[in-house]
Amino acid sequence: MSKRTIGSSFLLFLAASIWGMAFVSQSKGMEFMGPFTFNGVRSLIGALTLVIYLAVMCLLGRKKLRQINWKKTIQAGLWCGLLLTVATTLQQYGIQYTTVGKAGFITTLYIIFVPVARVFFGKKVKAVVWLCAAMAAVGMYLLCMTESLSLGLGDSLVFLCAIVFAAHIMVIDYFADQTDGVIVSCIQFGVCGVLCSFCALLFEQPTTAQILPGMGALLYAGVLSCGVAYTLQIIGQKHVNPTIAAPILSLESVVATVAGWVAGRIGLLQTDQSMSPKQVAGCAIVFAAVILVQIPWKTRGNSYT
Quick one: which of 43, 51, 86, 278 is 20 to 30 A from 155 by CA? Predict the structure, then answer.
């Protein structure tokens, strides 16, 4: 493995770590403001961060705006922004009623939902995908089901969030070859920020007194999670095979669990972030399923998955 590949892999791990710890900032932000307010402000901060990044790239001559298919790029940004608004709203509401660790692992299920969704488009789903889906179901049962065999509100909302994120990824994949990824991301954060801010004004009546105490969480989620981590992913994936990059980025769920536990222990989060042995086992099964579904299984040169 070359030094460039090792360095790029580290950048991807850093991105996954930032995203994993962002669950803590999302949970912390709920102590000061409503979900729409948090998502609106952090998305606008993320959009501004990417605007600054794009401006610097243009000044350095590394970004040629005239070569971009603006019609497709704007179209992709609007669709991604709508889906991102729905997904992050479900996640932000859900994280109020579940732990950071559980939210991280449930959200990661989008990696399994994407290949499973192929069946709705009349395409054959590989055998290992169904196996991983079954493993994920078992893991979800251990992770989320209570003694009364009911799924908690927070877990249900985050589960729906993972489904919407799967749709979001499929839309990105559809437009990927026709658009500029950074600009699409900038537009989607802008759309999400405007829509969530509008909803915040309608339903939450946000005030400066709410936003200022949670500014640390907002800056982390906006600048680091939306802006910096996304850029690290773009740079890192240039020199790392996708089959290696995907498992590294999946470590986001593990980081979320550890970060949530540490935040609970030091008093940064007021809610109990601990998990029972059964829930830890559920996390392990879900993570195994997420990793297995990304492996390019082959035999004698032919894929059988």
Answer: 43
Q: Which H helix or E strand runs over 291? A: helix 277-292
Contact (CB, 8 A) for 107 and 250: no
State pLDDT tens for residues 196-238: 999 999 999 899 999 999 999 999 999 998 888 877 887 787 7
User: Are 76 and 175 contacting, i.e. CB atoms less than 8 angstroms apart?
Assistant: yes
Nearest to 250 by CA among 17, 64, 6: 17
- In angstroms, the CA 233 to CA 291 distance is 18
Could you list the beta-strand ranges (E) of the chain.
Answer: 298-299, 302-303
Token pair recorded at residue 194: 């405007």
Q: Under 8 Å CB-to-CB from 295, ≥6 apart: which residues? A: 128, 243
Cα–Cα distance list, 287 to 105, 115, 161, 202, 264 (Å): 7, 16, 17, 38, 22
Angle between helices 100-107 and 3-29 (to 10 degrees): 130
3-class DSSP state for residue 12? helix
pLDDT digits (tens, 9 = 90+) for 235-263: 787 777 665 677 787 788 888 888 888 88
